[in-house]
Amino acid sequence: MKAFVFTKYGSPEVLRLKKIAKPTPKANEVLVRIRATAINDYDWSMIRGKPYMYRLLFGLLKPKHQIPGMELAGTIEAVGANVKSFEPGDAVYGDISEYGFGSFAEYVCIDEKALVHKPPEMSFEEAAAISHAAMLAVQGLVDIGKIEKGMRVLINGAGGGMGTFGLQIAKLYNAEVTGVDTGNKLKMMKKLGFDHIVDYKKEDFTKKKEQYDLILDAKTTRPTYRYLKVLKPNGNYVSVGGYLNQIFLLIILKPLISLISTKSVHMVALKPNKDLDYINQLFAEGKIKPIIDGPYKLSEVPDVMHYFGEGKHEGKIIVSIA
Ligand SMILES: NC(=O)c1ccc[n+]([C@@H]2O[C@H](COP(=O)([O-])OP(=O)(O)OC[C@H]3O[C@@H](n4cnc5c(N)ncnc54)[C@H](OP(=O)(O)O)[C@@H]3O)[C@@H](O)[C@H]2O)c1
User: Fold this and answer.
1) pTM above 0.85, yes or no
2) CATH homologous superfamily for 132-267?
3) Which atom in ligand 1 lies closest to the alpha carbon of residue 308?
4) Ligand 1: distance of its center to the CA of 133 in Å?
5) How close is the Cα of 304 to the center of ligand 1, in Å?
6) Which residue, among 310, 232, 300, 306, has the nearest Cα to 17 in the 3D structure?
7) Which has the least CB within 10 A, 208, 269, 293, 305?
8) Do the strands 292-297 and 316-320 form a parallel or antiparallel pair, or are they unpaired?
9) Distance in Å, CA 23 to ligand 1 centroid
10) Looking at domain 2-118+291-320, does it have CATH number 3.20.20.20?
């Protein structure tokens, strides 16, 4: 089978498209023929080994996982002896990062718990775009942010994967939603239905007068106090990721803020695939649709990794694997 393999950290050119042996599933694993995968922040960090903190997770001196890729959609080709939920031929999808990586390839063996059945009306490309970013949005807005009908919501980093799902989830609650991003994405965001749009290269939303009930942040570029200023009383600020120094500050200040203020700050600890049944239902009802950048070919992965790093993509970058 073909797979993108890397043996040292560096720019996306360290990825080499190689022919390697097709893996065999262990007792609790399934062998998936991958039909589509997505580019994620994890892949970007894993390949470069940066921020350096991530090397504690991905391997100190060289990568532990030699095939990146954490989201996939495909069909089951073989199952291990103890697999209960799937059989050969089933169409599946999921965020596999809790059990391993390896979706920049034609096949992967992964624990059956990393996958769910793909609804027939969802294409492989749509499914590959959903699992990770939609879960960040649902868990950030609903589980942690406690979104309620009619709230004023701001999504920072709104033109990427999480933000485009975030808008669609927030609209189910009739929220008034402001999206912050830049470049060509602003046009796509307007079309998708954001009520207000802020170009972060021209304006700083934390220096404006508007206040919000809920802020969902994919980038966390600022110190915590700046977000508190633009939260209404009882408001929630929810970070899903971003600059590690600002995230540490937020985690340290969280207990103090809840003691002295009615506002609160939170960090999402993603539970992969937890709410995919809910998303499948919304998809079937036509209430949610992934924004897909691509699909690109497997051989284009190093180029689209650069494109992801430049932040020029709209929604999710998808790679089809023929
Ligand atoms: N909490 C968890 O358990 C967990 C697990 C996995 C991943 N994550 C994190 O979750 C986030 C995923 O977000 P995503 O998939 O939506 O990422 P994404 O597709 O890269 O989208 C992020 C968007 O933010 C924009 N942006 C960059 N700098 C900005 C700024 N200063 N202000 C406003 N927007 C800015 C980017 O555009 P430009 O670059 O063009 O400006 C891009 O459009 C990542 O931070 C990831 O590390 C969290």
Assistant:
1) yes
2) NAD(P)-binding Rossmann-like Domain (3.40.50.720)
3) 20
4) 10
5) 16
6) 300
7) 269
8) parallel
9) 33
10) no
